[in-house]
Each structure stands twice: as structure tokens, then as C-alpha cells.
Design brief:
The protein is α/β, with parallel strands linked by helices. The chain has a single domain, classed as Uracil-DNA Glycosylase, subunit E, CATH 3.40.470.10. Bound molecules: uracil. Uracil binds next to loops.
Length: about 200
């Protein structure tokens, strides 16, 4: 817990990439320090930058509803992003920004030791499923080194494409069964840093 708090302070002082220049607040992440489930989104938007907290805008409201649908709330899980500072105008994160920020995420995972990592959206998915298409693998868990990786669409996708809302709700509802071991999980080579460099 103390280490996670210290990590948050270190992230707030990070100047490893250009995004430090435009931020109001870095957004390290929040939630239960011993969470079984860690959600990893993309990057802070305007509201998150202002408040220094992840997923506090419209996409966050939907994420809260998704958590509620499986009997959970924010404080039961850990919510982070692959990028800790807001890209200007909410543009997509750039490859060098993702690589500069990744050690923070890796350290968060080391400290929290989640049983399951839920990737939200294609950027987060690409870190763990290089070369895969979200349309093909969303909702299919894979296990590596004792962690279950579960790719989902980004909650914001439902705000832009209404048809995805039910898909996202359906994927979320699989999570309790996967964690309880009642759904099969394939072993898969989910992380390949060499591939990650080619991704974006
Ligand atoms: N979208 C994200 O990916 N992360 C946030 O924190 C907010 C919106």
C-alpha cells in the first residue's frame, strides 16, 4: 500500500515523455491495492486530467455500471491506464509515450499482483495480445505466468457505437465465472516486448 502510494507520487513527478508538459495532473490509478482484478484503459481524458483520477467521465460512468452488473464497485478492483498523462486533445497515445510509461504499469502489476488483467480497448489489448484484433479476441481469456488476461472493448466504444453496449455487458458478465475457474482459460503467449514495438 505504502509502495503503491509512493509509486503514485513518483508518477506525478514523471517527466519521461512530452505528455508531462501538458498535464494538469498525472493519473496513476486507483482502487484496492490487493485487487484480484485490474482494469487497464488507454489514457486520461479531460475530466481525468482535471481530477487526477481514472475513468471519471462518461466512459467511467459506464464502467461503474458494468462493475455493478457483476456485484462489484470501484473499491473492489484496481483501475489504471497504460498512459498516465492526458495526450493533447485526447489524441491516440504514440508508441514512444506508451513505452516510456510502461514501466509504471509493470510496477503497479508487480505490487498489486492481480489474478486477472482486463484490458479496455485496443491500445491496452495490444500490450498483451500483440498483432491481435479486438473484434476477434474480446471476451476470450488467456493465461500467462499465473495471470488471466481478458480483453474487452473500451467502455467509450459503447458511447460511440450503441451496438457494442450489449457486447461489452456480455463480456463483463463472464468475469466472475472465469475467476471462479468455471470457464476454460487457454494458455497463451500474451506478451512479447519485441512485437510491441512494431504494433502502433
Ligand atoms: N478513457 C480511458 O482509457 N481512461 C480513462 O481514465 C478515461 C477514459
Amino acid at each position: 500500500m505504502i509502495e503503491l502510494n509512493q509509486l503514485g507520487r513518483d508518477i506525478a513527478n514523471c517527466r519521461a515523455c512530452r505528455l508531462a508538459e501538458g498535464r494538469t495532473n498525472a493519473v496513476p490509478g486507483e482502487g484496492c491495492p490487493q485487487a484480484d482484478i485490474m482494469f487497464i484503459g488507454e489514457a486520461p481524458g479531460e475530466n481525468e486530467d482535471r481530477q487526477g483520477r481514472p475513468f471519471v467521465g462518461a466512459a467511467g460512468k459506464f464502467l461503474d455500471e458494468l462493475l455493478y452488473s457483476i456485484g462489484m464497485k470501484r473499491g473492489d478492483v484496481y483501475i489504471a491506464n497504460i498512459i498516465k498523462c492526458r495526450p493533447p486533445g485526447n489524441r491516440d497515445p504514440l508508441p514512444d509515450e506508451i513505452l516510456a510509461c510502461k514501466p509504471w504499469l509493470d510496477r503497479q502489476i508487480e505490487l498489486i499482483k492481480p489474478r486477472m488483467i482486463v484490458t479496455l480497448g485496443r491500445f491496452s489489448m495490444s500490450l498483451y495480445f500483440p498483432g491481435k484484433a479486438i473484434g476477434k479476441i474480446h471476451g476470450s481469456p488467456s493465461s500467462k505466468n499465473g495471470i488471466i488476461y481478458f480483453p474487452m472493448y473500451h467502455p467509450a466504444a459503447a458511447l460511440h457505437q450503441g451496438g457494442l453496449k450489449e457486447v461489452i455487458i456480455g463480456d463483463m458478465k463472464k468475469i466472475p465465472g472465469i475467476l471462479a475457474g468455471s470457464k476454460p482459460v487457454e494458455d497463451a503467449p500474451v506478451e512479447d516486448p519485441a512485437q510491441q514495438l512494431k504494433l502502433f
